[in-house]
Structure formats: C-alpha cells, structure tokens
Amino acid sequence: MTMIWRTLDKYQDLGLLIARLGFGLGFIYFHGWSKLVGGPERWAGVGGAMGHFGIDFGHTFFGFLAAFSESIGGLLIAAGLFFRPVSAMLCFTMIVATTSHFATGQGNPGNAFKNAFLFFGFILIGPGKYSVDALIAKRKRSR
Description:
Shape: globular
Distance between the termini: 44 Å
Number of domains: 1
C-alpha cells in the first residue's frame, strides 16, 4: 500500500501549486478584497484588533496592512512571489485575527487559527518549483 502513496511523491510541487492557488485566491475573494476596498473607515475597524495587544494608535494603518496582506498577499501566495515574507505577514495577521476573535467573542477563531498554522508551514516549505520565486532563482543561477 505504501508503494501507491510513494508514487505520488513526484507530484509534491504540483500539490503545493494547487494549495497555493486555492488558498491565495480564496484569501483575496473571501477575506481581503472587501477589506481593501472598504477604505479608511473599514481599515480602522480591522486595525482596532491591535488594541488587544496594547497598541492604541495607528489602527487605520494596521487595518490597511491586514487588508493588503489578505488581498495582495493572497495574490502573491497564489503566484509564489515573495512567498516566505508574505506567508510570514499572513501568519502574523492570522494570529492577530485569532486573538481578536477570542477577546471579543465575535466570530469563530477556528479559521484564523488554522490559517496561522498553514502560513507558518508555508514559511518552512517554500513555494515549490512551480512559482515565480523558483523561476527568478533559476534565472539567477543561469547567469
């Protein structure tokens, strides 16, 4: 039985591409885009979550960063461009979101909690060979 599963090892990078596309594009659609186009009022509301960490200033800025990371970051995850830094940014955003859900009792912290772990894993795994980062690295090596 393990022979069957081992034959799938050659598709690891394809699997990572599928995960990147699904997660990245899903983040844009389900989380980030509406926040990004929501403007300063929406950003201030989202950034208010930083108050749970004792940060009582710059909520509009922090909200914009969260909206940016969930939308533009989602696009970069899907493309595999700046993959590890963007994964770190999204991991941090999900930690803040999880904390906010627990602190306020609003919403379910489960999704943000799971996403934080996924993005932390992405930091360790990298984008795979079907990514813009891999293409750039390959071009640099060939020079």
